[in-house]
């Protein structure tokens, strides 16, 4: 396990280094410059423009700028945003909580809906299975932004059950209330996919010989399912569920924008438009880190769950 | 030659940061169409709190002079008061100065209001006023209003008959600077606080200390901004609401959702894709101002007057003649805009309106593609290619660009339209190299100071900061420069009208349409200007229950 972890952590470092370079280079190569933010929107005098370019090191060669930035990041300094001269860390500090809560609520929804509906379909062949399958097939084709529009117009505007916009009222209940609709729109596709995978995995286990044998011996079905079917079906479900949750980090960008949630996604979009290099770099790097970390967790969970992997050492 | 010609004309390229949405198509004139009013009905009662659309992004800084764009100019006048204010009809009225006079064209004398306190209870002194104005002249501040101060020679504190005064001396005669004092460029911050915070002033952490009716109680630089009543406000009796929350939805769609879901009670500058829907909305009213209620102008800017087919004035005149401005106003702007025949249209006339109107009426022409085609033939531009750039992500620009393309085609010009991402498009205003590949580009421009001299000085004098095409007509420059020093409003208007007549022939910028002011008010709130006057006064204090 230690060797496995060490290997994965080394891989993580390589991934992060490569992605930091890609992110930095991508922004560097994109047309446009951040000066409209730094200088306000009136045409600057050449001297002022030069002064600002000097202050932010905009004229330094690419590698100098990259290494400088990387060095700062390694020391925990995410830089200073071009917007309002604030530390990037402070800007992220103001919004990451919203995004993490959104991901957490969505993950719970995906797990509950996906596993629940999948199990229901697997264990109740016939009408229920058909119904769930049809519903998940439809839901799997609805992109988050369509789901968001639909949710807003029906559940928020027509029925007034949830806020259509913003971070919600004070305290945890207020926040959760505001997160339900965005989380639902995000969870729709993912939970449908998870439901289909769950149904297939559980069905496959149910058809195996040991289930028949156990049943023939008079072991109650409930116990068979809980003690044997579910643990055996779990590894693929954890892989798929974990990947879906990791992908959420990107999905929040669309949904936060539609619901006006002040999170990392909204910050990213705003910063891209403003060419706020330091913020875009930091947010992207954090999102990539989050993605890679969730993947690592999935792998570790796999290792712990699957005795074959655990006993057999690293593959 | 000219010094004071620089101005706070902000190229609001990123305005109406809308995407998706219904768009135009139908010509439904909004219901609450205010023919002759510059205010919505006044509030009748008090409110505990309300939520307002603070425009398309959160303010970059709370420092009132740092950025001059919609969010800052919507939110900050309520927190940091200026020496003067504009009423909704753009006439000046007292603010932190109770009186102003110009004993001669090179001197402006202001009497500072007595008994004003900052939001922390410390008294405001004439030293705070001088310090705040001087910040605009200090290059280290990087004030957005710096160029407006170019003609200021000195700012000194004095004592009039018992009252504190401030004397502003100009290098050359200056008839228009006084209007700057009714923008955030004339706002007053606490000197002690500003000095203590240094370069951090205006960041969410350091904040700002001013005298306005409200003080910021929560702001993180990205999300909502809340402000609460300033208990030390000198005019406390006029403040109707305890708390105001500003929200900043980035897209028209998100704003539409927020309004539909009653999460927002109102807002200025409603993006045009929302106009048709909101005009029919339940629970609120979309108000549209009269013609000239907004100083916004949508124009086609010629990148370089020395090259390409557009270098020939006849080609520019042909494009202008062929344009169906009324059609654009009706279909793309859902009738919440008017055809524009001079860059400084009715929304920019802060004075001598009848004079400007008479001259403007003469510039008004019907679209005439046949005459335009003939001009193209005479210019020998037939079949030549013009490349036009516009920003993507904002639907109306693409629609206008497409209309222009069809117009050009009809008169024998070949027009290619190129959508640029906002960040790249923004570069066009700063860097000539970014403009180089395009013959022209679309821009939505606005001035906060309703003084055509600023606008024309900006776009039509040789070193005007928005003179992108290199326009150089000594006659025009002469009229504009003289206008700046002419204190008599009618004489100043006449000079500008002369310049305008030449500009209508030369067309370094081709005016297209002027959107009208739009204001959404839910049934819960009332009492806001129906013009851009809100940018020059602490408007939020007057908002209350209908």
Describe the structure.
The complex is a heterodimer of chains A (315) and B (546). Chain A folds into two domains: 2-93, no CATH class; 96-262, MetI-like fold (Orthogonal Bundle), CATH 1.10.3720. Chain A is mainly α and 315 residues long. Helix content of chain A is 78%, strand content 0%. At the A-B interface, helix 2, helix 5, helix 7, helix 10 and helix 11 of A face strand 1, helix 4 and helix 11 of B.
Q: Any chance you could write out the topology, listing elements then pairs?
A:
The complex is a heterodimer of chains A (about 325) and B (about 550).
Chain A: H1 2-29, H2 35-38, H3 46-55, H4 62-74, H5 88-123, H6 127-139, H7 144-158, H8 171-206, H9 209-216, H10 221-259, H11 264-273, H12 277-305, H13 307-311
Helix pairs in contact in A: 1-12, 5-6, 5-8, 5-10, 5-12, 6-8, 7-8, 7-10, 8-10, 10-11, 10-12, 11-12
Chain B: E1 9-10, E2 32-33, E3 47-53, H1 70-75, E4 84-86, E5 92-94, E6 97-104, E7 107-112, H2 126-135, E8 152-159, E9 164-170, H3 191-197, E10 214-219, E11 225-229, E12 241-247, H4 252-260, E13 266-268, H5 275-279, E14 284-288, E15 296-302, H6 313-322, H7 325-332, E16 337-339, H8 353-363, H9 369-379, E17 385-391, H10 395-410, E18 414-420, H11 422-426, H12 432-435, E19 440-447, H13 452-460, H14 474-484, H15 489-506, E20 509-515, E21 518-522
Parallel strand pairs in B: 2-14, 3-12, 3-13, 17-18, 17-19
Antiparallel strand pairs in B: 1-19, 4-5, 6-7, 7-9, 8-9, 10-11, 11-12, 13-21, 14-21, 15-19, 15-20, 16-20
Keywords (chain A): Cell membrane, Membrane, Transmembrane, Transmembrane helix, Transport
GO biological process, one term (chain A): transmembrane transport
Family (chain A): Belongs to the binding-protein-dependent transport system permease family.
């Amino acid at each position: 396990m230690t060797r496995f972890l060490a290997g994965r952590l080394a891989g993580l470092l390589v991934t992060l280094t490569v992605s930091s370079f890609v992110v930095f280079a991508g922004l560097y190569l994109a047309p446009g410059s951040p000066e409209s933010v730094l200088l306000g929107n009136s045409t600057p005098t050449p001297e002022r423009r030069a002064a600002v370019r000097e202050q932010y090191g905009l004229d330094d060669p690419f590698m100098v700028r990259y290494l400088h930035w990387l060095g700062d990041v390694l020391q925990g300094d995410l830089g200073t945003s071009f917007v309002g001269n604030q530390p990037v860390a402070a800007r992220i500090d103001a919004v990451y909580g919203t995004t993490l809560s959104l991901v957490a609520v969505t993950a719970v929804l995906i797990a509950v809906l996906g596993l629940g509906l999948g199990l229901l379909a697997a264990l109740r062949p016939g009408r229920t299975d058909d119904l769930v399958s049809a519903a998940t097939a439809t839901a799997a084709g609805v992109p988050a932004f369509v789901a968001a529009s639909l949710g807003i117009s029906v559940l928020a505007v027509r029925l007034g059950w949830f806020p259509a916009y913003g971070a919600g009222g004070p305290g945890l209940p207020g926040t959760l209330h505001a997160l339900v609709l965005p989380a639902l729109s995000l969870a729709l596709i993912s939970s449908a996919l998870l439901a289909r995978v769950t149904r297939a995995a559980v069905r496959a286990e149910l058809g195996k010989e040991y289930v028949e044998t156990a049943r023939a011996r008079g072991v109650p079905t409930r116990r068979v399912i809980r003690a044997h079917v579910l643990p055996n079906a779990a590894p693929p479900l954890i892989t798929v569920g974990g990947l879906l949750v990791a992908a959420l980090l990107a999905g929040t960008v669309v949904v936060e924008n539609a619901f006006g949630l002040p999170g990392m996604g909204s910050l990213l979009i705003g910063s891209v438009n403003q060419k706020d290099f330091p913020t875009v770099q930091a947010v992207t790097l954090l999102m990539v880190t989050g993605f890679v970390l969730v993947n690592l967790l999935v792998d570790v969970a796999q290792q712990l769950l699957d005795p074959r992997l655990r006993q057999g050492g690293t593959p | 030659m000219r010094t004071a010609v620089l101005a706070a004309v902000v190229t609001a390229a990123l305005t109406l940061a809308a995407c998706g949405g219904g768009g135009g198509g139908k010509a439904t004139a909004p219901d609450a169409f205010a023919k002759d009013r510059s205010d919505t009905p006044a509030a009748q009662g008090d409110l505990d709190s309300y939520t307002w659309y603070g425009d398309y992004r959160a303010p970059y800084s709370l420092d009132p002079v740092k950025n001059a764009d919609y969010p800052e100019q919507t939110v900050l006048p309520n927190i940091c008061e200026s020496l003067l204010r504009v009423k909704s009809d753009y006439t000046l009225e007292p603010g932190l100065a109770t009186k102003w006079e110009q004993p001669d064209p090179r001197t402006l004398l202001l009497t500072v209001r007595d008994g004003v306190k900052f939001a922390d209870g410390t008294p405001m002194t004439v030293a705070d006023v001088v310090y705040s104005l001087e910040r605009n002249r200090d290059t280290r501040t990087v004030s957005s209003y710096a160029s407006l101060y170019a003609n200021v020679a000195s700012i000194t504190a004095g004592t009039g008959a018992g009252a504190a005064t401030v004397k502003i001396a100009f290098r050359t005669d200056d008839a228009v600077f006084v209007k700057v004092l009714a923008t955030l460029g004339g706002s007053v911050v606490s000197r002690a606080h500003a000095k203590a915070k240094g370069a951090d002033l205006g960041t969410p952490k350091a904040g700002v200390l001013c005298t306005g009716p409200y003080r910021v109680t929560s702001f993180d630089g990205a999300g909502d901004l809340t402000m609460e009543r300033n208990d030390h406000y000198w005019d406390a009796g006029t403040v109707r609401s305890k708390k105001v929350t500003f929200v900043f939805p980035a897209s028209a769609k998100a704003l539409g959702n927020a309004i539909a879901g009653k999460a927002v009670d109102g807002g200025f500058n409603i993006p045009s894709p929302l106009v048709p829907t909101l005009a029919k909305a339940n629970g609120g009213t979309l108000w549209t101002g009269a013609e000239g209620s907004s100083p916004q102008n949508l124009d086609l800017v010629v990148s370089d007057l020395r090259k390409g087919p557009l270098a020939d004035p006849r080609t520019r005149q042909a494009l202008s003649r062929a344009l169906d401005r009324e059609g654009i106003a009706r279909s793309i702007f859902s009738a919440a805009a008017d055809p524009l025949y001079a860059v400084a249209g009715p929304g920019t006339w802060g004075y001598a309106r009848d004079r400007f109107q008479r001259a403007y009426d003469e510039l008004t022409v019907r679209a005439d593609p046949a005459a335009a085609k003939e001009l193209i033939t005479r210019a020998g531009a037939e079949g030549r290619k013009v490349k036009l750039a516009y920003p993507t992500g904002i639907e109306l620009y693409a629609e206008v660009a497409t209309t222009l393309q069809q117009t050009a085609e009809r008169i024998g010009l070949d027009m290619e339209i190129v959508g640029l991402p906002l960040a790249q498009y923004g570069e066009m205003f700063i860097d000539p190299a970014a403009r180089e590949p395009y013959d022209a580009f679309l821009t939505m421009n606005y001035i906060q100071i309703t003084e055509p001299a600023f606008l024309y000085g900006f776009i039509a004098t040789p070193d005007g900061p928005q003179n992108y095409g290199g326009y150089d007509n000594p006659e025009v420059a002469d009229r504009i420069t003289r206008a700046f020093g002419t204190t008599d409003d009618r004489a100043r208007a006449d000079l500008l009208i002369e310049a305008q007549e030449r500009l209508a022939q030369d067309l370094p910028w081709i005016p297209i349409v002027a959107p009208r002011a739009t204001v959404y008010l839910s049934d819960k709130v009332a009492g806001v200007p129906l013009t851009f006057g809100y940018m020059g006064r602490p408007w939020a204090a007057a908002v209350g229950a209908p």
